[in-house]
Amino acid sequence: MPPIPNRRVLFNEIPPADGYPIPGKTTVYDTSAEIDLENAPLSKDSILVKVICLSLDPYMRSRMRKPDVPGYVPPFILHEPISGHGVSVVLRSRNPHFKEGAHVRGFMDFAEYCIIEGDGFPMQSLILLKNDLQLPWSLYVGILGVPGRTAVFGWREYVKPKARGVAFITTGAGAVGSLVIQLAKRDGMKVIASAGTDDKVNFMNELGADVAFNYHTNSTKDILREHGPLDVYWDNVGGEVLDLALENAAFSASFVECGMITTYNSTNAYPFKNMFNIISKNIQINGFLTRTLLEKHEEEFLQIIPKMVGDGELKYREDITSGLANTGSALLDLLTGKNTGKSIVIVNEGNSIGRFPKSVM
Ligand SMILES: NC(=O)c1ccc[n+]([C@@H]2O[C@H](COP(=O)([O-])OP(=O)(O)OC[C@H]3O[C@@H](n4cnc5c(N)ncnc54)[C@H](OP(=O)(O)O)[C@@H]3O)[C@@H](O)[C@H]2O)c1
């Protein structure tokens, strides 16, 4: 078979810290590369994969920086493909753990095909997917991937739910927030949840939120005053809303610092007024990275969550972009709140392998 096109998304330009990544400028869709699927050389332990789907995530913004700027994830390399969590199928293998035909989840390039070298971080991140429940592969970058684990691990580790207590969850219609709402309801809590559109508010109501509101058209301050005090605050946004949550916290509240998306495209620090409440209200405040809780909570996650998703007991939404060409605008949508649910790029056919769970919204 002659070489075939291998379309990719390249990191093209570092955006200013105070601004959004611009599609076609920060990242570009590249159609110039080719790959010989039969003869492309594979070093020891490496594999050649066909990418099925890729996850777009808020943390990717922090990888768009100069190489000498420190960060908790490595920067993207200029003029190389951007990378992220994805699912792919192995086409050729020199690795005994990942045989031809196997499906894998982990770090991979935003490309139609890629070689995952035997000795790097992407290979270390790879997990073999068995998918006994025959669910669409895209779930493995969403509710059964990092966002699902983030919600479940963070909730299990840091929240001591008080039945009939009050939990406030921001970006409640997103990949992480929508599952946190469901976990809080299952633990018997009253849930206040915010998001940026009325459509998202409807979704949060369907998930069982007791007080779902659009923070663009309602005052978060008034709503927290009316429905608080907060026993739990799940923070995905940081900034002013975190300050308001501190103001409205109950004594000994649990604050889970999962994300601060209001700060990702800006260098303006919010002038906090209520920080001393952390002490005076005895607030337990925990930031976390999902990977640090993997060892402790993974087994329970695998035993419980996939079956609940397959049975329709846990709901989710996906925001699908077909093909790599629109990756840049889909990432911008995620960072400006235009996504509705887990943002996923479907790269190659083969996503819908079996049945769709009952709860696809
Ligand atoms: N700690 C960890 O290990 C970890 C792992 C995964 C994710 N996270 C964090 O979890 C949070 C949610 O991630 P996700 O993957 O589930 O994304 P998501 O909620 O599906 O999408 C991001 C959402 O953030 C909101 N948003 C965007 N810009 C905003 C702004 N300037 N102000 C307020 N809200 C804004 C938008 O929703 P609205 O319409 O509601 O504004 C947007 O839909 C992020 O902060 C992310 O960094 C943390």
Describe what this molecule looks like in 3D:
The chain is α/β, with parallel strands linked by helices and about 350 residues long. It is built from nine helices and 17 strands. The strands form four sheets. Strands 5, 6, 7, 8, 9, 16 and 17 form a seven-stranded mixed beta sheet that branches. A six-stranded parallel beta sheet has the order 12-11-10-13-14-15, with helices on both faces. α2 (about 145-160) packs parallel to α3. The two termini are about 40 Å apart. The mean pLDDT is about 95. Bound molecules: NADP nicotinamide-adenine-dinucleotide phosphate. The site of NADP nicotinamide-adenine-dinucleotide phosphate has 31 residues, from α2, α3 and α9.
Count all strands and give the number. 17
Distance between the termini: 41 Å
Mean pLDDT: 95
Give helix % range. Answer: 10-25%
What is the assigned CATH homologous superfamily of the largest domain? Medium-chain alcohol dehydrogenases, catalytic domain
Order of helices and strands: EEEEEEEEHEHEHEHEHEHEHEHEHE
Per DSSP, the total helix count is 9
Instruction: Please outline the major beta sheet.
Output: 7 strands, mixed
Give the C-level CATH assignment of the largest domain. Alpha Beta
Return the CATH topology of the largest domain.
Quinone Oxidoreductase, Chain A, domain 1
Domain count: 2
Molecular shape = globular
Query: Would you identify the regions where 5 or more consecutive residues have pLDDT less than 50?
Result: none
User: What is the assembly state of the chains in this entry?
Assistant: single chain
